[in-house]
Amino acid sequence: KKERLIFPDIEGIEHRQGEPGVLEEEAPMSLLEEMSLFFSFSRLSYHSTPAEIQWILAHLSSESPSGVSKFKTKTNCEKDEDGGFRLICFRPNSGKMRPAFMLVANKSLKIAVLSIRGTKEVEDMLTNQSFAVAPATLGTHTSNQTEFYVHGGMLQAAKWLVDGDASRSKNSESNIEGAGLGLSLFELHKAGYSIKLCGHSLGAGVAVICGLLLADLYPEMRLAVYGYGTPPCVDARLAEAMKTTYINKNKTDAAEEVESSVTVQKDEVSMCRTLGCRIMVKNFVTRDDMVSRLSVQNIHNCAMEIKDSKGNWGQYVQEDTESFTARAKSLWAPPQRAKPLASFKSAADSDVPLINKDSDEMDIGSVEQDHILEGEQLQEDDTNKRLYIPGIIVHSHRFRGTEKASVVDYRHSSFNRIQAFQNMQADHKQVNIALAMKSIVAGRKAVLRPPPWQSIDEAISRHALEGERGGSEEQVTKELVSCSICKYFVGWSSTIGGTSGAVEIRSTHHCTACGKIVCAKCSTSRRTIPEYGVIKPSRICDVCESKYALRFELWEQFDTKLSKYNNRF
After folding, report:
1. Whole-angstrom Cα distance, residue 559 to residue 81?
2. Strand, coil or helix: what is 137?
3. 528-556, pLDDT tens digit by residue?
4. CA–CA separation, 525 and 514 (whole Å)
5. DSSP secondary-structure letter at 385?
6. Which is nearest to 496 in space by CA: 266, 327, 352, 355?
7. Are the C-beta atoms of residues 37 and 68 closer than 8 Å to each other?
8. CA quadruple 30, 35, 38, 43: dihedral positive or negative?
9. What is the pLDDT of residues 143-170, one digit of tens each?
């Protein structure tokens, strides 16, 4: 978080055109609508009864404006028994390496969708925890057999889904041959149906590998896979191959660079190209989603990074422990503000590159260089058995309080390491994925550009601290981040107390309306700002709250009208 506080626009910089792994700086609206449509199907597999699923399917087209245009051929007034989706088969409960799923089809539009459920039961955790990388031999029906590496647990689950005969395994929980979906989907394909696979979390990874097995088993079948919060599940060769179709359809300069950077052995090129023509994978990952970074290599690198930086965080732990002890001895006396001795540093006095408010750009200097060097160091590892997210990734990121979306691939730096953020677990939840999609659309419709956010290096003041540790009466001075409203240390109201770097980072907040750094007590209001594209109630400082109270009320009324448009997601 500290890096983002020093350089508030760094997320946008990492997603600029020309950065490693960035295919398109701004994701096309058509792609966002496509991802939102199949997100509805990925959520349906979490429901527990067929009647509930069928009721939602019956109302899917009427509730979604984009669904009307893509999934329904008749008007809302007309009733057509074959005009909507129908549930074909459904498995509500999962087992060990046997995920829950549902299969639906639309007879009019000839579309069949297989939705695989993510982690919901204890048995799903067993599939997740099978981190062992397993070899998968593809091209068994040709002379060009190639061995790839995939997630072991997801491979077993995908094999169970594809293998077997659905007519025999129907309503049979003890069947060991498989669910038989491979043959069922092939029969639908022969009948002219377009086959789509989708899933969230674990279901997304299983859907990807299931699509690979189907593409290898039935060469004439063409598949599209839609994953949400997709975990790393295939090696770099497959990850590169499964974005080929998208790149060919959306030819850009960045795409040409990616094509020229493909490094696979000559005997593997043919198989990768073949798979790339048969299956296309599209993923949506919300900001700092932890699951999309959970690979064995990333976990190992994160552990090593924590170990190497013990000298930094160990000091924070010690300071926080001493401050907590002092607070406990005082019987949790109300915290007091520490008065600053000096005013804010000016931009001219700061040695750290700051935001150029005229051009809205930032010279990130050495931080960007360190980030690039770290990415190169990771690429030196053995990538044959390292797992990645396949295909293209619609990655949402934050820019001055608003949500943006870029099209990236597995090479993007944010997916090659695990960083600790408070929102890394919440970003994986389906409700937050849906909110991110809505926020991206709202940002595209915004009429005002949000103001630049203040860097913590612009908000440092020198504070006098008395008795900071152990009841000492000696007065010391320390440079701390100060609130732009009350001019006191931003962490003065922290429950733990103290002025450690950890408390400072956790207590630093930005006002969404003006972009200034504020403390928690000076920013108690939460407001939506539709003019900026902020549709989720966000932190507002007391000054902006009192200054723009009437405007906020008008904005919220406008937000109510805007939400009707965003309900398509």
Report:
1. 37
2. strand
3. 888 898 989 999 999 998 887 777 666 66
4. 13
5. S
6. 327
7. no
8. negative
9. 667 788 899 889 999 999 998 765 544 4
